[in-house]
Design a protein that fits this description.
Blueprint (H helix, E strand, L loop, with lengths): L9 E7 L3 H21 L2 E8 L16 E2 L2 H6 L5 E4 L7 H10 L3 E4 L2 H18 L3 E2 L11 H7 L5 E7 L2 H13 L3 H10 L8 H4 L2 H15 L9 E2 L7 H9 L2 E12 L2 E12 L11 E8 L3 E8 L3 H21 L22 E2 L1 E8 L4 H11 L4 E9 L2 E8 L2 E2 H12 L4 E10 L4
Parallel strand pairs: 1-2, 1-4, 2-3, 4-5, 5-6, 8-10, 10-18
Antiparallel strand pairs: 7-9, 7-11, 9-10, 11-12, 13-17, 14-16, 14-18, 15-16
Helix pairs in contact: 1-11, 3-4, 4-9, 6-7
This protein binds NADPH dihydro-nicotinamide-adenine-dinucleotide phosphate (NDP) and L-homoserine.
């Protein structure tokens, strides 16, 4: 074949990265490539692969000349029509993608951190160059969420998105609830099974979910939402005690990602939350992800699937490659980009409202509860339920409030901290839904 020219119907792919996701992309194409060609008439051929350490054993044999340690060579190779970036990290991934786009190559990326930080820049470059930029794998692994938002729900005004966008934390919380394990033990188990990274910060502190939510909110609300706009709390402080008390109250705990477009402002937050055990999201276990979208005409739409792991993510990467191959055959490019984004102010977390669960330990003597209740009353916070558990001379008080504005709750907490009978406020967790 002539270098620089693809065979008819062929898309020649340069893969940046061959780790968990990249290797699964190679395996998927080796397993299903012929079937994909039979169904679509397109041939997806990986012609170059860049890795950090080309000599590392990775259980995949490539033809001589395919594997390289120089990612820039893959981007510059005239035989590469389309670049699939599955290496992760913001740099050099950003520079490599921009270079590919400038060279007129369509690109696929699984990189949520890159898109959440530089999405508008990369999309603007793709629009200028008239190439396709696809990112289904960047949110929810194998879960189809981005194309459905852009295409199947395109006729709607989307007002709300909420769900579970991180598989690792959902696995950890499932194990804590099911086995009664503490956070550290459940994290070790997640690491042993290959869900959590050696440095679990991205997952357990909510950065990963915040980046994914920023991408979804940008697409759904047609407003630029950056990862830094997303309020974020992780799951490190959730204890088996919270989970047990929550269960007594009829709640399950999940790390939720919530975005709303309301009254001209965008609200975006990631934090642990109690849900009624009968809520569909309470049944989403292990590394599964799930997303609800509310459209003004479609109503509520829910998607569930495997949000992490090489194979589900490769399924999304290859679907994007197939779409690019189809567009190329049809002579269309740059279809369905970011679209026009209209900036909107972000609603600060202090102005959001929800019911709260509160667990505190206090001295157990007459009059203590009256003092606590009067603080709630004076700050205008309505109590929905109270449970007290005696612990020797102390007592654990578990309270759930009615819907309360965050600033009101913070005032209550600050005043409780001043009480001489308070030993500690052990946790506060937002509750989703009406109490
Ligand atoms: P891995 O760490 O398993 O793989 C990264 C790959 O990139 C490795 O092959 C590595 O080379 C290569 N690489 C790293 N730096 C460079 C560089 N400078 N030049 C060339 N190659 C480089 O990551 P994953 O496969 O898990 O993730 C890839 C992307 O997919 C990330 O953006 C991630 O967020 C996203 N993603 C991952 C999911 C998952 O479940 N794993 C799910 C959804 C998205 P070498 O092999 O030599 O070390
Ligand atoms: N680490 C992510 C998760 C998968 O646990 O969901 C990559 O987005």
């Amino acid at each position: 074949m002539t270098p620089g020219r693809a065979a008819p119907g062929e898309l020649r792919v340069g893969l940046l990265g061959c780790g968990t996701v990249g290797a699964a992309v190679v395996r998927l194409l080796r397993t299903n490539g012929e079937e994909i060609t039979r169904r679509t008439g397109r041939v997806l051929r990986i012609v170059r692969v860049a890795v950090a350490q080309p000599d590392k054993s990775r259980g995949i044999v490539f033809e001589p000349g395919v594997l390289t340690g120089q990612a820039a060579d893959v981007v510059a190779d005239p035989r590469v029509d389309c670049v699939a970036e599955v290496m992760g990290g913001v740099e050099p991934a950003r520079t490599l993608l921009l270079d590919a786009i400038e060279r007129g190559k369509s690109v696929v990326t699984a990189n949520k951190q890159l898109i959440a930080r530089h999405g508008p820049e990369v999309f603007a470059a793709a629009a200028r160059a008239g190439v396709d930029l696809r990112l289904e794998a960047s949110v929810g692994g194998g879960l189809p969420v981005i194309q459905p938002l852009k295409e199947s729900l395109a006729a709607n005004r989307v007002s709300e998105l909420w769900g579970i966008l991180n598989g690792t934390t959902n696995y950890i919380l499932t194990k804590m609830a099911g086995e009664g394990w503490g956070f550290e033990r459940a994290l070790e188990d997640a690491q042993r099974r290959g869900f959590a990274e050696a440095d679990p910060t991205e997952d357990v502190d909510g950065h990963d979910a915040a980046a994914k939510l920023a991408i979804l909110a940008t697409i759904a609300f047609h407003a630029p939402v950056r990862a830094d706009d997303v309020y974020r709390e992780g799951i490190r402080r959730i204890t088996p005690q919270d989970i047990a008390f929550g269960r007594e109250l009829g709640f399950a705990v999940k790390l939720l990602a919530i975005a709303r477009d309301r009254d001209g402002r965008v609200e975006a937050r990631v934090h642990p939350a109690f849900l009624p055990v009968g809520h569909p999201l309470a049944a989403i276990r292990d590394e599964l992800n799930a997303l609800f979208v509310r459209g003004d005409f479609a109503g509520e739409v829910m998607t569930v699937g495997r949000g992490a792991g090489g194979e589900p993510t490769a399924s999304a990467v290859v679907a994007d490659l197939i779409d690019i191959a189809r567009n190329r055959a049809a002579g269309v490019h740059g279809r369905v980009g970011w679209g026009e984004l209209a900036p909107r102010p972000v609603r600060p977390i202090e102005e959001t409202a929800s019911p709260f669960y509160l667990l505190m330990r206090v001295t157990d003597r007459p009059g203590v509860f009256a003092r606590i209740a009067s603080i709630f009353g004076e700050e205008g916070v309505s109590i929905a339920s109270i449970v007290q558990k005696t612990r020797g001379h102390a007592a654990d008080i578990i309270m759930v409030t009615h819907t309360t504005v965050e600033t009101q709750m913070r005032r209550v907490l600050a005043r409780l901290e001043q009480l001489d009978v308070l030993h500690s406020i052990r946790s506060t967790i937002r509750v989703v839904g009406d109490v």
